[in-house]
Amino acid sequence: MKLSGEILMGEQDYGISSAMINRISSEIEEINEAGVEVAVVMGGGNIFRGISQERQGMDRSTADYMGMLATVINCLAMQDALEKNGIQSRVQSAIEMREVAEPFVRRRATRHLEKGRVVIFAAGTGNPYFTTDTAASLRAKEINAEVLLKATKVDGVYDSDPEINPNAKKYSELVYIDLLKDHLRVMDATAISLCMDNDLPIIIFDLYKKGNIKKAIWGNKIGTLVRGEK
Fold this sequence. Notes:
Helix 6 (about 130-140) runs parallel beside helix 8. About 40% of the residues lie in helices and about 15% in strands. It has two domains: about 1-145, Acetylglutamate kinase-like (Carbamate kinase, 3-Layer(aba) Sandwich), CATH 3.40.1160.10; about 145-230, 3-Layer(aba) Sandwich (Carbamate kinase), CATH 3.40.1160. It is an alpha/beta fold. The chain has helices spanning about 5-10, 20-35, 50-55, 60-85, 105-115, 130-140, 175-180, 190-195, 210-215; strands at about 1-5, 40, 90-95, 100-105, 120, 150, 155-160, 170, 175, 200-205, 225. It is globular and about 50 Å long. It has a nine-stranded mixed sheet, sandwiched between helices. It has a two-stranded antiparallel sheet with strand order 7-8.
């Protein structure tokens, strides 16, 4: 599951909403206890956005590394919330910081999942110029995930911005190439291409609606399903 940093703000303008992160952790707890192996990739936009800083003149690589550090803060907050709910978890970082997180090791991550632990991936891919969406696609394939859940602020993919256009059309299903050729900016092109090349389905749904994580896992028709040709 990919969680954007902005979602963690809840109703706030900045930072981490304890109410929101506790609610998300409770929903993860529910599916974890049902036997579903869960791994999470966190964004960092609630604390720092590298692209915004680049536009203001900061070096892109420096800004991206700062954004990666912001994701580590969010991952530690998620780990704390999960463990307060009695769910064992491990944070694995693409940038080594052994005092607060394990280094990312694929086999160790899959072993944690087999033991019922939630694995939280921090620091994106560890490389500048790659988004946390791309990190989510990459980690999903590395751990042999069945599906990538993209938890957002809207209830799926639309042909235009539903906040601007009240007549925007929502898609229940799409194929990968539609996202690319129609420039539907729900994920960056690298992340979509990685999913397309490896036939990893994506479910894009509204996380603000309580219970949607479980609905997506149980196969209920919510959000937008993106997959290969029918």
